[in-house]
Write a structure and sequence with these properties.
Alpha-D-Glucose-1,6-Bisphosphate, Chain A, domain 4; OB fold (Dihydrolipoamide Acetyltransferase, E2P)
Amino acid sequence: MKSRTLRRVALSLSLSLAFPAVAHAGACEDGFVKKGNFISGFRFTAAQTVADMPPPVAINQLRGLAAADGFDIIASEPESGALLLEQGRSSKARAFPIEVQATQEGGLGTVRMEAKLPAGMNAKEADFKTAMCGMLAKLKGGKAGKLAAAGGAGAVTQQAAPVALSAQEFSQQISKDAERNSATIPLRYANKKFTLSGTVDYVIKDGNAYRVAFKILQPHQMALRLPGMAKTMSEVSCLMGPGTSVFTLQLKPGKSVKLTGTFHEYAEFRHVTWFTGCVPVK
């Protein structure tokens, strides 16, 4: 059975991780650290030292491992020994970042990995210890490490399946991302597929295709505003793909619709998100 990672199992209240178990307890397990709490957010830190493993070799190896396991590669700076991963959002899981730092001293390379869970997400320390130390245990030094690093450099994550959310949930998600740091949005969402459900706001002709806009409620239009809600909700529009005109021309405002499309662009100052190649989901 293939290894499954943090991306598959981070739930809003609990998560269970399933990397292959490490054969025996080692320095990584012994030095594993858990900090924080349910209210402020948990932090899990693991480290591994490998002989003859310079920072670029360590970072490129981890990039390849992370991409294969479905983590989003947000930023990678091999020469600086820095890598930022993210367990992406799914229909049942919130996203969280994993920061990696690689250093070398006296011929020994050390990699430190820290997972940062958002407030309100619970986790089992033993699961994270097995998961993180399991990944770090795959790092290699010397010629084997350089070979693995060559294969991992530039590795790109392949999305397993579209993320299913309501258009309103997606709007809240990307709007909060923009409030925190809009520069991360192209890195986080590029080429990702989403299946969005909601009601039609309007349908218009857009170039040689048709565009369907979802009805998105702004905070002042909601009867109940939850804590942490974005100040302004992004509009969400789908540029329909080839062969969908018959379906699209039968839509009208207020009609329920479910569409799968690929993220195209977020316009920060206009608060609009566009998807392309959208097709209806039955």
